[in-house]
Write a structure and sequence with these properties.
Immunoglobulin-like; five-stranded antiparallel beta sheet; Cu-R_CopD_dom
Length: 545
């Protein structure tokens, strides 16, 4: 037993865990580099489709996302490179621009900036042409506020600590009898959390407006951020911190337990009311899982400083505190694990999509730290707690080191979790993945395998491989593709294929703007005197536009 405790003390030493923590931060440094898409809603399709060439100006512009969004700013770049704002109407997951007034021929760009249901800004650009593409289309300029993202990450990181130590600690203190006065450090977490909440709202507003952190202070940033679910989250979090501060100022008296419980519930509501995890379907299950997961983690993490201060300190040895913690922790720990599994399963519908994504990398880092944390917790409960309660000084010192290591691990976990603000969950990536349709065409002299890929914004490409009846690749001089949907009023669209880099032929820029049954014809020119025509059909599922 003595040898086991020595090994535990070595593994749970602060330098060892601090090294792991710094390694996590080094990995997060790469995760927080500026990226093209840092939000959790995705543009699924558009009308006109990305890259479409239209014969006449469109009467409306429709942008469809994988979840509901609200418009922040839409800008139209005309063929002459002039810009003007567009007014869009939100209709669930769609944004509709009526009467865009597009008269000139050439290429148009629509730059969009919207906010998704999880409170995160979404940026993007679609391009389409009227008549013919411009020789040199305009460009959309914008800021990439990398410094702002670092500030957002750091603020969220420390906010997680404040919620846990202030609110979770207040609730655990409320579970104890003869509560001692809180230390000055314990009382400082709630005011710090309130300050960071205000800063978080301001940074959120800057991000939604597309402004850098060096922008002049403006009230519009606060007002914009407090709209919708993010405002509810800020209000719930502020209530939780105020209640936790009130609890920390009470030494004795009735009502302390209810204050601590209400603070914990308000903090859990703050986490479940916004964020990408709570916007997964079914929504009620996702938000319930986040509510339980955040509440359980705050209780566990908030208990650790109380244990160090009141039970495992150099001068205070209130073993009753350790006894209460040991009796209470199994239920929230089980709830933490189960709710975490549920939340991840909703975000990761397919394990193959987890890696190598930023979301999957952060999840892997978190799980490694959590498994280490759970291992320390099991050792504490089954090998160190009982001897420490009986008065074994060596067990108490080993437990003190182990709990201190748990705190350091928690700091590292929160650093990783804060990076999820910039990681698209796999469910969103799957929803915006290209749609692939395959069909086989054949005649007495040739066969063709046709694969059509419809991308997120409604454009498509086709890959065609041609073989003879012996399934040997045919030598083809030219190859053409025709697509028509007469039921939808679409006459044959004719494309000339180009040889692919490896084998086969490619056609790009196919505008799939209608679902339904499309007639397909592959025209194969074998020589100047011989050609083959292969006919068939392909069914395009509902595109939503």
């Amino acid at each position: 037993m003595a040898e086991l405790r020595k090994r535990i003390a070595a593994l749970s030493s602060v330098p060892f865990v601090t090294f792991s923590w710094l390694a996590a931060l080094a990995i997060l440094t790469t995760l927080l580099e500026p990226a093209a898409a840092l939000a959790h809603a995705s543009l699924i399709r558009s009308k006109p489709a990305q890259g479409a060439v239209l014969a006449a100006p469109p009467p409306i512009i429709i942008l469809e996302f994988n979840e509901a969004v609200a418009p922040l700013a839409l800008t139209l770049v005309a063929p002459d490179r002039s810009t003007r704002p567009l007014q869009a109407t939100a209709d669930g997951s769609r944004l509709v621009v009526s009467n865009p007034d597009l008269e000139a021929h050439g290429t148009y760009l629509v730059s969009l900036r919207v906010v998704s249901e999880d409170g995160h800004p979404v940026v993007g650009t679609i391009a389409f042409s009227i008549g013919a593409p411009s020789a040199s289309p305009g460009a959309v300029t914008g800021s990439n506020p990398a410094a702002l993202h670092w500030w957002i990450w750091a603020t969220r990181w420390v906010l997680y600590l404040c919620f846990s130590f202030a609110v979770g600690g207040a609730f655990f203190e409320a579970c104890l009898k003869n509560t001692a006065p809180a230390s000055w450090l314990s009382r400082s977490w709630a005011p710090l959390g309130l300050t960071l909440l205000a800063g978080s709202a301001y940074l959120q507003g800057l991000d939604e407006l597309g402004l850098p952190v060096s922008a002049s202070p403006q009230l519009a940033s606060f007002i914009l951020a407090l709209n919708g679910g993010y405002g509810i989250s800020i209000a719930s979090g502020a209530a939780a911190f105020l209640l936790a501060w009130l609890k920390s100022m009470r030494r004795h008296g009735d009502g302390g337990g209810w204050i601590g419980l209400t603070a914990l519930l308000a903090a859990a509501a703050a986490f479940s009311s916004t964020g990408h995890a709570g916007s997964a379907e079914p929504r009620w299950l996702a938000r319930a899982a986040i509510f339980i997961h955040s509440g359980s983690s705050m209780f566990w993490v908030g208990s650790l400083p109380v244990l160090l201060r009141r039970c495992l300190g150099a001068h205070r040895k209130e073993v009753g505190v350790l006894r209460v913690f040991s009796r209470l922790i199994p239920l929230p720990l089980a709830a933490l694990i189960v709710s975490g599994v549920v939340a991840v399963s909703l975000q990761v519908p397919e394990l193959s999509s987890l890696w190598p994504s930023t979301y999957g990398l952060i999840l892997t880092i978190k799980l490694l730290f959590v498994m280490t944390l759970l291992a320390l917790a099991c050792v504490n409960r089954f090998w160190l707690t009982a001897p420490a309660i009986r008065g074994d000084e060596r067990a108490r010192l080993a437990l003190r080191r182990s709990v201190a290591a748990e705190v350091v691990l928690v700091v590292a976990i929160f650093a990783a979790v804060a990076g999820w603000r910039f990681a698209e969950p796999p469910r969103a990536a799957l929803e915006s993945q290209p749609m692939r349709l395959r069909t086989h065409l054949h005649s007495s002299s040739a066969m063709a395998q046709l694969e059509i890929t419809i991308r997120s914004a409604g454009t498509g490409s086709a890959s065609i491989s041609v073989v003879d009846q012996s399934r040997r690749e045919m030598t083809v001089k030219e190859l053409g593709l025709q697509l028509s949907n007469l039921e939808q009023g679409i006459e044959p669209l004719k494309f000339r294929a180009t040889p692919a880099a490896g084998r086969g032929w490619m056609v790009n820029g196919i505008p799939f703007v209608r679902s339904g049954r499309w007639a397909v014809t592959v025209d194969i020119l074998i020589s100047d005197f011989k050609s083959v025509h292969l006919d068939g059909f392909v069914t395009v599922p509902e595109l939503g536009l």
